[in-house]
């Protein structure tokens, strides 16, 4: 079969076929958008939690260790932490730090990335909770 590449329509078809052939049909970017709102007159830096139930579409076929959070428009992933609130051995909530301007909103996206590892934290802390002494909690560096 001979293709005339001087005809723009034939070139467009060839380009489209090449693009379709180079794309994986199973590629599905799974994301969850999160908007954090601040109604106060000063900027805030707060820990935000996303319930694991709200992330079920992403977690269905992916490991929790591959879940990442980044600010919309940003390139770097934020540090995250999974929390098991009811101590049943299953994580219930994904925590991340949100920066929100005064009387404004910030948008974040929760996504899957099994290639790029999350950033390591330089801050190291040790905490200990003694079940017999729930009124006494120790935190140190």
Descriptive report:
With 141 residues, the chain is mainly β. The protein contains two helices and eight strands, in the order αββαββββββ. It has helices spanning 8-22, 56-59; strands at 31-38, 44-51, 67-71, 80-83, 93-100, 104-112, 126-129, 137-140. It is globular. The N and C termini lie far apart (71 Å).
Overview in brief:
This protein has helices at 8-22, 56-59, and strands at 31-38, 44-51, 67-71, 80-83, 93-100, 104-112, 126-129, 137-140. With 141 residues, the protein is mainly β.
Question: Any descriptors?
Answer:
mainly beta; 3-stranded antiparallel β-sheet; 8 strands; disordered N terminus
Q: Report strand %.
A: 35-45%
Q: For the residues shown, what is the average pLDDT?
A: 78
- Rg (CA only): 23 Å
State the helicity in percent bands: 10-25%
Which outline best applies? globular
What topology, given as strand order, has the largest sheet?
1-6-3
Determine the number of helices (DSSP H or I, runs of at least 4 residues).
2
Could you tell me the number of beta strands? 8
What's the multimeric state?
A: single chain
Give the biggest beta sheet. 3 strands, antiparallel
Structural class, please? mainly beta
Distance between the termini: 71 Å
User: What is the ordering of alpha helices and beta strands?
Assistant: HEEHEEEEEE
